[in-house]
Amino acid sequence: MKDDYGAASLVKLVWPLMDTLISLTNLTTPDLLIISFAALVAAIVSGLGGFGGGFIVVIILTPIIGAKSVIPLLSVFALCSNFSRVYIYRHDIRWKFVFLITLASLPGVYLGSEFLARVSEVLLLAFLGVVLLLVIPLRNYLKKTEFTPGTPSILALGLVFGLVSGAAAGSGMFVIAGLNAAGLHGMALLGTDAAIGVVNSAARVLAFWRVGLMSTDLVCAGILMGIITLPGTWIASLIVAKLGTRIHNRLIEVLIVVGGIWFIVQAVMKM
Q1: Where are the alpha helices (H) located in the chain, listed in sequence order?
Q2: What's the total number of domains in the chain?
Q3: pTM (two decimals)
Q4: Can you give the residue range of the structural domain that contains 266?
Q5: Which partner from 57, 58, 212, 235 sits 20 to 30 angstroms from 37, CA to CA?
């Protein structure tokens, strides 16, 4: 009964919000339903294994709203979703890493957003496809590599993080790998990553607005997605006990590879 009541309360919250967004923007009800579905799936995926949510959003929404809109939308979504994690883990955040990585990431965000604004759709689709196909081997390599990053390495990590986040999805993987190598685990890792994500996402929103890629529609849709993540995280907590993260990781790896191939095929077809 409590679960049914919670679901009913969520519907009462989200449905009027969707009506408001329809009246304030050019988004239609089908648009918002698809965006909500993408956010729900992304939240479940991230809640199960800690990665893959951003890729899911890109794979689901790129055919609907286009490659040049989905990355700015993802920045608003990330900004909203990271705020709650910052609050939960606020006592465990390692602010030195937050400062160094965000400082170095800002010029990267600027360059990445410029690239996104100027690149053609064909090249962008090909770029996204290559990024997706490289994610799994690069992630496995970083997990196996043992090193202790110093300040120069952390600053370099921040620059790469900014570049990738400004032009594509999957930038969080670099931060997680770097922080883990620096000795951060558990709540310290999650809290520090979330704090970096808030600053980086805010910078991306401003950068995308500056180059004309951000709009009121995307901001409103991103806020809606942030709200939808709440039930998604709850659903993930129910699934993880039965499914296990190992099976989930394999499923997400398959989805990422399929998505990468799909983007490259689309790029070839548009040439």
Answers
A1: 2-24, 29-49, 53-65, 67-88, 95-118, 121-144, 151-167, 172-181, 186-210, 216-243, 245-270
A2: 1
A3: 0.71
A4: 2-270
A5: 212
Walk along the chain (271 residues) and give the pLDDT tens digit of each residue. Answer: 444 444 455 555 555 655 665 555 566 778 778 888 888 888 777 666 556 677 788 888 888 888 788 888 888 888 887 777 787 778 888 898 899 988 888 888 888 888 888 888 788 778 878 877 877 787 677 667 655 667 787 788 788 878 877 776 666 766 776 777 677 776 787 788 888 888 888 888 888 898 888 888 888 888 888 887 777 766 766 665 565 556 656 766 776 777 778 778 888 887 7
Task: State the virtual CA torsion across 63, 68, 73, 78 in degrees, nearest 10.
Answer: 110
In degrees to the nearest 10, what's the CA dihedral of 66, 68, 74, 76? -120
Q: State the helix-helix crossing angle for 95-118 and 151-167, rounded to 10 degrees.
A: 40
Placement of tokens 């759709």 in the chain: 121
Contacts 24+ apart (CB under 8 A), 145-154: 145/181, 146/181, 147/181, 148/181, 148/182, 148/183, 149/178, 149/181, 149/182, 151/100, 153/178, 154/97, 154/100, 154/101, 154/104, 154/178, 154/182
**Alpha-carbon distance 101 to 20, whole Å?**
37
Measured between alpha carbons, how far is 36 from 73 in angstroms, rounded to an integer? Answer: 12
Residue 41: both structure tokens together: 């799936």
